[in-house]
UniProtKB/TrEMBL annotation:
InterPro entries: Ankyrin-SOCS_Box (IPR050663), Ankyrin_rpt (IPR002110), Ankyrin_rpt-contain_sf (IPR036770). Keywords: ANK repeat, Repeat. One of its GO terms (cellular component) is nucleus. This is Uncharacterized protein. It comes from Penicillium steckii. Residues 202-211 have a biased composition (Basic and acidic residues). The keyword Disulfide bond does not apply.
């Protein structure tokens, strides 16, 4: 699509197309044109859907993230990886903490992103999740260890006042809980709550976020 637009421009034929086609092409170009080209812009637009105000706990939010990551994986394998890694920004670490990658690839790309961009503790715009929140939600110990080694803040709070450890399962994530135990000055909910309490708290958080 990007190449087709360039060919039309280079040959001065865009203006002779029917108005409806011309408007459609121009609208697409306006949305997807920018640093990194159409592929990176499309990738970033899909990635923005990961920034959700809903606490990452119920099945619906997990399925929504799974579907978004599957779309990102297709774009990544279709060529978005090259412009993404060439145009790292302050939110690239968030994406690298989540998208499907081999552990070796993830470590290599994370190390590069962390060393080149100051986004280690940056909160996402809507959810206020940091990369460490996302790594905890994904249960990815390698990413948690990498982020902590570079100084990630275990006490960072998201939109719902939760620290990264708040998203762990007490029975299943003991090693991650040990790594992410907030410092004495940190906040968030207690390490262990029953599923009933978690469900009630998530419902309350959603209502507050929508006010």
């Amino acid at each position: 699509m990007e190449q087709a637009k360039k060919i039309l421009d280079d040959n001065n034929v865009l203006s002779i197309l029917p108005l409806s086609q011309r408007l459609q092409i121009e609208a697409t170009h306006a949305i997807l044109d920018g640093e990194g080209g159409y592929m990176l812009r499309a990738f970033n637009l899909v990635a923005d859907m990961l920034d959700d105000i809903v606490p990452f706990e119920d099945e619906e939010s997990q399925l929504r993230r799974k579907a978004t990551l599957e779309r990102l994986d297709v774009l990544w394998k279709d060529g978005a990886d090259t412009p993404f890694l060439s145009h790292l920004n302050e939110l690239s670490i968030h994406i690298l903490a989540l998208i499907p990658l081999s552990q070796d690839e993830r470590k290599k790309h994370l190390d590069k992103a962390i060393s080149s961009k100051p986004g280690l503790n940056n909160p996402w715009r809507r959810s206020h999740w940091t990369p460490l929140h996302l790594a905890a939600q994904a249960g990815n110990q390698l990413v948690v260890e990498i982020l902590l080694a570079h100084g990630a803040n275990k006490n960072a709070k998201d939109l719902h006042g939760r620290t990264p450890s708040s998203y762990l399962n007490c029975a299943e994530d003991k090693s991650l809980l040990a790594l992410l135990q907030p410092n004495a000055t940190g906040g968030g909910r207690p390490k262990c709550e029953s599923p009933e309490v978690q469900s009630s708290r998530a419902s309350d958080d959603i209502k507050l976020a929508m006010i």
